[in-house]
Amino acid sequence: MAKASLNITAATVDPGLLDLPWELPLDLWPDETIAALPKGISRHLVRFVHLSGYIVAIKETSAELAKSEYDMLRTLQRLDIPCVDPVAVITNRTDAAGEPLLPVLVTRHLKFSLPYRALYSQSLRPDTAKRLVDALAVLLVRLHIIGFFWGDVSLSNTLFRRDAGAFAAYLVDAETGQLFDGGLSNGQRENDLEIARVNIAGELLDLEAGGRLQEDTDPVDLSSGIVAKYRELWSELTGTEEFDASERWRINERVERLNELGFDIEELAIRSDATGAHLRIQPKVVDAGHHQRRLLRLTGLDAQENQARRLLNDLDAYVATNRVEGDGDEEELAHEWTVRVFEPVIRSIPRDLRGKLEPAEVFHQLLDHRWYLSEQEKRDVPLAEALTSYIDTILRHRRDEAAMFNPPTGTITMPLDVIDDEEDWRKLV
Ligand SMILES: Nc1ncnc2c1ncn2[C@@H]1O[C@H](COP(=O)(O)OP(=O)(O)O)[C@@H](O)[C@H]1O
Ligand SMILES: [Mg+2]
Questions:
Q1: For 273-415, where are the E strands, in sequence order?
Q2: Based on CB atoms within 10 Å of each CB, which residue in 80, 134, 155, 224 is the most buried?
Q3: Which residue minimizes the CA distance to atom 14 of ligand 1?
């Protein structure tokens, strides 16, 4: 039996994996196993496949590349880098005649993720392109901070998830990546940045050639945007600052600026000169996810960074209004906000609309919508009223991303990636 000789490397093996038609080349897999989802441009053959209740991406490649990419993705996951989840490496495939077939890397399809080519219906708008490039710059800075040289930075090798009006970028293709213990040299960083710029320019020019880029958009200009955004963030996160010892408040200011950007300082080096009149500070270890962590701690909700920032604004306002003088514990009121404000909103979303957007994204859009209604009607529109209007006038008419990214195959219509099984999802809704 061809199947018996399969060699599977995985942290935990999903038995469903064994039922897939490994004895066929991937391009011949029957339609019913294939999930038709949009994907980026790739060197290898990549197809999406239904597994027990979720979808995986299968890439036919060489054994060495599959194994090293699998290991790299696991390492990146451990380091908290947003990237796709490796499921297995499968080698020793043979067809019915005993001829060898290509080894594969299996990764989990990232829920609610969008390849950049799926982010427009007619053509890509310049502001959307800019937000994609900005998100990719943040990802690249995070990767460089942990010493990862990507080697093939591009829009195609990145997945995007909506994040409260912006995007969060996830690394999808780690094949060319290398991790350096001692960190990256400036030369290596510049090299990656140049690769990014050239690849993005190529990808946007390609869209332009196909009439898929809105007219007033300059691909070269947009692609250079990654360099500027990257440098700005890099110096804010890693740069040294010198000041007079009397200006000690500047330490706090730096910490707050970083928090605002979504980072926490785990370690800050502070040095004074011999006279003690002069201070020099430099963040040593920074950690992304400042708002995410705070939201998780206060409410148990897991969201993207900007979504978390947005939800926290609402939560903080709730806490401030409901705090009784001298009383009112933040944690308790945060819990109250979750149960009385957030959860009822998510529960009121009709079931058939739940696959459209992640709960945190829905809540963010609802807040926007309430602001808009209040402006229009010159009164404070209550959340419940705004919700009805949001569902009927906006959510219902959204281009149905869910159908594209989350086809109705039963259990996989559940939106938060971080809530990975049905039971957790039920707890939330
Ligand atoms: N786990 C995944 N979730 C969602 N999309 C994926 C996943 N893995 C691959 N893809 C899609 O497939 C495309 C090609 O995958 P990639 O790893 O870049 O292949 P290659 O090494 O051949 O370039 C990506 O651009 C992405 O759109
Ligand atoms: Mg690729």
A1: 278-288
A2: 155
A3: 42
